[in-house]
Amino acid sequence: MRGRAWIAVPVACCAALTGCGNSPWPAGSEKTNVIRTAMIENTPRHLDPTASYWSNDTLVTYQVYEPLYGYHYLKRPFELVPKTAAEVVKPIYLDRNGKPLPEDAPAEQVAESVYDVPIRKGILFQPHPAFAKNAQGEYEYHHMKSGELGERRTPMQFKDTGTRELVAEDFVYAIKRHATTRITTPIFGIFSEYVLGLKDYGELIKAEDAKLRAGLDPATQDRPFLDFRRWPLAGATAPESHLLRIRIHGKYPQWKYWMQMTFLAPLPWEADAFYAQPGMAERGIVLDNWPVGTGPYMVTEFRKDRRIVMQRNPNYRGVPYPCDGMPDDTGQGLLADCGKPTPFIDTIIATVEREGTPQRNKFRDGYYDLEVFERTDTGNSYLVEAKDSDDVRADYLKKGFDFPQSADVNSYIIGFNMLDPVIGTGDTPAQQQRNRKLRQAISIAIDWDEYSKIFPKKAGQTAMSPLPPGIPGSREGTPAGINPVTHSVVNGKYARRPIEDARKLMAEAGYPNGRDAKTGRPLVIGYDYYAVPSPERRPEIDWVVRQFAKIDIQLEVRATDNNQFQDKVRKGKHQVFWLGWNADYPDAENFMFLLYGPNSKSVSDGENTSNYQSAEYDKLFAQLKSLDDGPAKQEVIDRMVRIVQQDAPWSFGFFPYASAAVQSWIHNSKPAILIRDHGRYLRLDTAQRAAKLGLWNKPLWWPLILAGAIVVAGVLVARQSLRRRERMNARGEMVQGQ
Amino acid sequence: MISYIIRRSLYGVLILIGVNLATFFLFFTVNTPDDMARMNIGGKRVTQDLIENWKVERGYDKPLYWNAGGQGAKKLTDTIFWERSASLFTLNFGRADSESAGDIGHEVSGRMLVSIQLALPIFLLQVIASTAFALLLVMFRNTRLDLAGVVLCVLMLSISSLFYIIVGQYFFSRVLKLVPISGYAAGFDAVRFLILPVALSALARLGTEARLYRAMFLEEVGKDYVRTARAKGLSERVVMFRHVLRNALIPIITSAGGYLPYVFLGSLVFESFFGIPGLGAYVIEAISKQDFAVVRTMVFVGSLLAITSYILIDIAYTWADPRVRLN
Questions:
Q1: Cβ contact B182–A26 (<8 Å)
Q2: Helix B279-288 to helix B104-139 angle, to the nearest 10 degrees?
């Protein structure tokens, strides 16, 4: 018996294998109200709402935190609706003397905008040990001594939890927290420009924090609680328990959009106090891993670079599903759940996938319900595959892979560094004119329609301006939106200008046939690419080279890693570059600021990577910032667009199509890059999923059994042969009697 | 033998210091602390203030090797190199640069168990399968089976391990639907996820190892003691397993022993492709995030394991061949 013990191992392996097939999830999980999705490469970087600014973070942050506003889930263009706020408020404008001004007061008269936001009553935070109190009403886990933490490594391991009602002070605390020096605060710069007193508050906090940390190693993970309640901030106050007052310098209509981002999500001071205790950070018990919010979900498992589990927040109030939307929504079943309390899903499990192939295969086999929760571009590759092959199309149709495409509010461009002497603005008026013509010629030569045909998985709508369709003020897709520099009307249709036009402009720019008219030298321009040219990227880089070659420009590819690229950009040593932009909010300002002079990347470390400078454009941008949507703003936008179309600091690339890969058993999916809190609206048909998974994934054992039989037969033959050889004598004769 | 082990251990410390210095030098030749900060903060609206804060928080605001502004010993000790190196040698690995909190030591110990789950079966299966296959070929030496086996070995070693992974995943998971394509689960359920990478990894190295072992066995088979054993009337099986295998052990130990550190460190490629959260995947993640704290820790742990493995191999020689003396 003991001698046969080794057999137990393969037998156990076979037993483990036979039951489950290729499902990566526990048996029976397909029948539970749990959705599964992939995280690309890593877990989110920051779950602390003050620090979180990565798209990947939104998988968690927008399900756990609830800012003041959100976007209506179904309506387009995007419309703000209240979330933790009781209503979407209009600001009160005050003049220099603090006197109220009418709503349509000119921006130059407005010294201050006051947002008095009523907060909904009865909203509770998720259960969390930070709120737990003992019988005496004292916080149970706020004064833990060193070593008291024991073996705990998550807040879920604390015995007691508590909650409390959301109040306006939680928003005040969250705004003040942007002044912290302890974590990355990407938005402090912009907030401190607008929120009254925040810049000075930052200095105050720096000084107070230095006092608190006097004598401590700056790199220590254990830092005393920095209690922002101790220091008031003029720009953020709570006059009443459920009334938040935010005071903004001047007029800044875009502020309402910041109020729907998690930078302005409420944060309970108790969470900071809890996580600041000794030993917590070393064990990863920090807000950056374990968020505390009022949203429909709460994080119950956080395994760095492995998986995150979010479960339904038992204290969530069940906000009803919307009952109005777009005309097509009823037909698509998007209004079937009207008025029902959300969320519908009990648990969201996100698993890290480092490689694309297993991720896509798991989705194809039905093991991911949404391929990547927060991504809106995952469906494109399936659509392309379906177009390429009849078999694949049939298979995908059978599986219900139908992912509608739409344009989204992000963009990709090829930009020119305007500080560069060859392709940039130029010094003298004559030089400026020549360089402008060179950029215009290149803009004609780069055929973005061709790009979308060659790289259909990354395809999009060819751009005529910096403003994507769907943004108020954008004229994309209309006759008025055409870029006259690159396109013309031919037989009633818009077409890219012929390459001869570009050649003509090249000649006027002083580069006939791609050679300098004075020196005869060929025109060589550097393409500063932001990544190492991997085999996947090489075709795209080559395509760009070919576009320049159409007008005889030699494009020298200078591909580096992103750090080196950023370094070149900071020093202004780049020439031509590729750039993408994901909008923060659906306002023209969030796109136009990418060309605003004072935002120059090489001069003032802003987001204007082209270093474009135009006095007229900058003046108009200053107006745009403070205008409400309407005819006046449209006029300003039109003028700004005309300027940049003529100056051509970018070859306006394309607005990529959005198409999210979502299984047919997931209902209410309406992907949009700006709507990140869609977890609460999704509904799952578990019966359909279980049936389809069974159908799609029937194990096939016979080839393995056949292979095993062949191996066993081979071993037996070899054994037999060996025995025969051992019974032979040196002459090869069989010896009997052995 | 003890004095030998002590001497080798002391050499090991010197090697560790050298490896640490080389890692530090190479990493900071290609990256600056500013690059690391920019990479880790990432995204939009990254300002120099944010970068400076990030560096101060993690101690990267100091000079790399020499602090000219420091007093006395502080010139040397108040530097990034000294602080990072001193903590490594006390096995205090600190936190990852890419995270706002945490403990690398905890992560390493947790992931090492996962790597062992993958790499130990690979190691054992590889040694057993390669030895068995090589012995089979030697038993049938100078036959068509031997020739076919050698050709097969050459074919197998000519194919990249990525090919085995891609074909294996496609065939066993997508076509036969027998095992998950990637992923991991704790406990006994791990078998479902590990069986394919273990089998494919062993298969990927079978050609190389079996061919090497075959050559070693063939060399032994021609020696006098084998002829004597046969002349005594011992069966081929006994000759092979009791005599040839024993005498060919030293090169096998050398070859297989070189793989020992990977039993703990895991496999970069297999862990990454199969989504197994071991130390191999940890290294890949750290490199992609330019996380110096994790990279230097893993290089340090890897060197430590390599040094230990080679000492163990030396000791194993004395067991395999009593004529070997460690002095």
A1: no
A2: 120
ipTM score: 0.87
- Measured CA to CA, the distance from residue A652 to residue A581 in angstroms comes to 12
Q: Please identify among residues 123-142 of chain B the ones whose CB lies closer than 8 Å to any CB of chain A.
A: 136, 139-140
Helix axes B2-30, B80-89, angle to 10 degrees: 150
Q: Does B106 touch chain A (CB under 8 A)?
A: yes
Task: Please give the Cα distance from A69 to A90 (Å, whole number).
Answer: 13
The enclosing H or E element of A322 equals: none
Mutation choice for A interface testing from B54, B181, B203, B206 by most A CBs within 10 A: B181
Is B35 touching A (CB cutoff 8 A)? yes
Rounded CA-CA distance A628/A104 in Å is 9
With an 8 Å Cβ cutoff, are B44 and A189 in contact?
Answer: no
Chain position carrying tokens 């494009």: A555
Q: Out of B57, B178, B192, whose CB is closest to A219?
A: B57
- The answer to whether the CB of A68 falls within 8 A of the CB of A262 is no
Among the listed residues B34, B110, B181, the one whose alpha carbon sits nearest the alpha carbon of residue A564 = B34
Is residue A205 within 8 A of residue A228, CB to CB? The reply is yes
CB contact under 8 A, A700 and B177: yes
What would the two tokens of residue A169 be? 């002070």
A226-242 burial: b if 16+ Cβ within 10 Å, else e:
bebeeeebebbbbeeeb
d(CA A587, CA A585): 6
Rounded Cα–Cα distance for residues A335 and B174 (Å): 36
d(CA A281, CA A287): 9
Q: What is the pLDDT along chain B (327 residues), one digit of tens a residue?
A: 788 888 888 998 999 999 999 999 998 888 888 888 888 887 677 788 888 888 888 888 889 889 988 888 889 888 999 988 888 888 888 889 888 778 899 999 999 999 999 999 999 999 999 999 999 999 888 888 899 999 999 999 999 989 999 999 999 999 999 999 999 998 889 999 999 999 999 999 999 999 999 999 999 888 999 999 988 888 888 888 888 888 888 888 888 888 888 877 778 889 989 999 999 989 988 888 888 999 999 999 999 988 998 888 888 888 877 777 776
Distance CA A421, CA A523 (A): 13
Contact B102, B58 (CB under 8 A): no
How distant is the alpha carbon of residue A31 from its chain centre? Answer: 30
Q: How far is CA A287 from CA A80, A130, A280, A640, B101, in A?
A: 28, 11, 10, 42, 10
**Under 8 Å between Cβ of A285 and A192:** no
- The token duo for A426 is 């130029």
For residue A482, give every residue at least 6 positions away whose Cβ sits within 8 Å of its Cβ, in sequence order, or none. A464, A489, A494
- Rg of chain A, C-alpha, whole Å: 31
For residue A407, list its beta bridge partners.
Answer: A657
Query: d(Cα A304, Cα A398) in Å, to the nearest integer?
Result: 37
CB A125 within 8 A of CB A294: yes
CA distance B21 to A463: 51
**Chain centroid, CA A424 distance in Å:** 31
Identify residue A642 by its one-letter amino acid code: R
Residue A186 to residue B176, Cβ atoms within 8 A: no
Pairing mode, strands A347-353 and A307-312? antiparallel
Match 């900058």 to its residue by tokens.
Answer: A618
Residue B296 exposure: Cα atoms within 13 Å on the Cβ side: 31
The two structure tokens encoding residue B58: 């993690």
What value does the mean pLDDT take over residues A319-324?
A: 96
Task: Determine, for residues B54 and A184 on separate chains, whether the beta-carbon distance falls below 8 Å.
Answer: yes
**Cα distance between residue B101 and residue A220, in whole Å:** 10
Q: Where are the strands (E) in A518-586, listed by range?
A: 524-529, 554-559, 576-582
